[in-house]
Design a protein that fits this description.
single chain, alpha/beta, 13-stranded mixed sheet, four-stranded parallel sheet, 18 helices, disordered N terminus
Length: 675
Amino acid sequence: MTQGSESVPSARPSRPAADSVLDHFEQWARDTPDARAVTAVPGALTYGELDVRANRLAHHLLAAGLPPGGLVAIGTARQSEILVALLAILKAGGTYVVLDVETSGSGPRRLATLEPFAVLTHAAHQARLDDGRGLRFIRLGAEAGAINQRSGEPPARPRARDALLQFTGAAEPRAAALTHALLLAAHEAWSAVARPTPEDRHLITSGSDVTPFTTGWTRALCSGGSLVLTDRGPWTPDTIRAAVGAERVTVVHSDPAGATRLLLPERETLLVPRPGAPLPRQDDDAARTVRLLHVTGDRLHLDQQADLQARLRPGGRVLNVYGSTETAGVGTWFELSQLPGPLDAPEELSLLGTPFPGCRAELREGELYLGPPDGGDAIPTGDLARARPDGLWEFRGRLRDRIPLDGLPFDPHPLEALIRSHAHIGAALVAEIEVGRGARRLVAYISPPPGGGAWLPGGDLPDSDQLRDHLRGKVPEERIPRTVVRLRALPRNPAGQEDRTALPRPPRLTDPATPIRRTGGKYAASAGGTEFPTGCATGCGTLVLGVMALIFTDVLWPGSTELGGVPAPWAPLFFILYLCECLAFGAGLMFLFTGRPRMREQGRGAGITAAAHLAVVYLLVAWWPQDNLYRLAAKDDLPRQAALVYAFNVPLMIAAAIVAAYVIRKPASAFDFED
């Protein structure tokens, strides 16, 4: 393969040695002040402009009293402002941490564990981050013009040992301190492998608060390249593809799911490509300018890496990078040119490759330890691996994902790899779900192959029987999942990792001893012993509550149903109206207690589901009291008429709007169930 021998001119071999990544950036700002450093909506910044803005903010922080090594939190959604802020903090001798202000509650939770000198933010985010502790808030942009013109010069300030705090991606995130030495060593190790040039345009798809961005900005700005940013909210698949094409991005830093969406976008089709069949290229190919795809954050199987490689232009490279927060995102790297030859079952292999320059990898009781590039002590990763005879490291799962099966730890990664070797399965997760009376069951969550489109009714949908046939003879019978849940895509956390905690509970999952009752059709699988009333029980409850409402109408609102003065044939029509209102009231009460579980099966967000559930209840129950109160209000009693309008009609409009929002909102993980 040619990508390993690609010739790329070195950046500037004669450049003097630098003590930090900040020195690298400042040298480029002096040498090429007019070169573009940042591209973002609504504008761009050259190296000179970015340096001047960072210097001004650094002077502003020093004037505010920032102590040496003082921690400054950055809380904004504007990535270009984040870059200005973190450079300014480093210039002022401080330590930075980036907060997530997009995810509800994430920023305040992280901030509550810190004691920052100040929080740099905008007015739109300050209210979310202010926890009442009396934190100092400094508005980004307020420094412009606040200091004299000399503030554009870099401040004279010794730098602290630590450059930043970064929250780990563990189940209980903790803040890890990354030093200037580590950040520089990580940048130099990555540069030795990736060989960036000043002509490169980099795009980082991850959120601003995770390791790929908080340490990855050095990939571009310390090699003279340009960084393409989104300045209003997080990246989406559509905006990434548009930016890659419009800005002629050459280096993309992404997680496996983001890389797949970029190069292998989903097609809404019933057809799934044959195993090994080449994927057709698209007219709007977003990869025509990409020469390097840097994939990190989660496991990348060998067949996935080969598919991504095939989509790049000739000479393009796909680097599968494995690292941790404590090693500033570097550790090992793999590309296809490292293979000594073709391997069997590539869909079951996830190769980590070899260590970066200065890094080392070792096993301790099956767990992989990484030695950081600055020569520090080896750090436990929490991941399982093995050293292969060909000199490459192979990923074997995560300790935190182990399942206690029959009293023994069971690692699901090998089973998940076997499941995804099925021709019509692209990704798989296996979880153990409690099904009642202390019984537990293995459940397989699967999603379609990349580029093959969603599973649609009428397509070849993998089910539990197909899965058992596929796995029989390869794994023990007791480890074959009995239940299959088909997802559009596996859930992932903000760092791009598969999120097992976000897997939906299969509907109507029962004890294995309970007989399973099936109905016709692929999508109609159901089980006995359901967790909520059946349709018959719901209908009977609606009828009983409706009759009770009809009986109590005249008790609560005497005279509201009096039809003595209504001539035929209108009186029967009004009686039918009263009856329908009572039945709607009964249906609303039944839906209040039985509708939420069924709505949650749609896979939409918990908040919008709860709001829509209550809105539907209100739309059903409100007619009964509303109509009766209207009939008892005189037409010329304007105060009462206005009160009724605002008490009933306006909430009805709001409820209808909530239901509309729920209907058009795309499910986060719509699935169907096979047991």
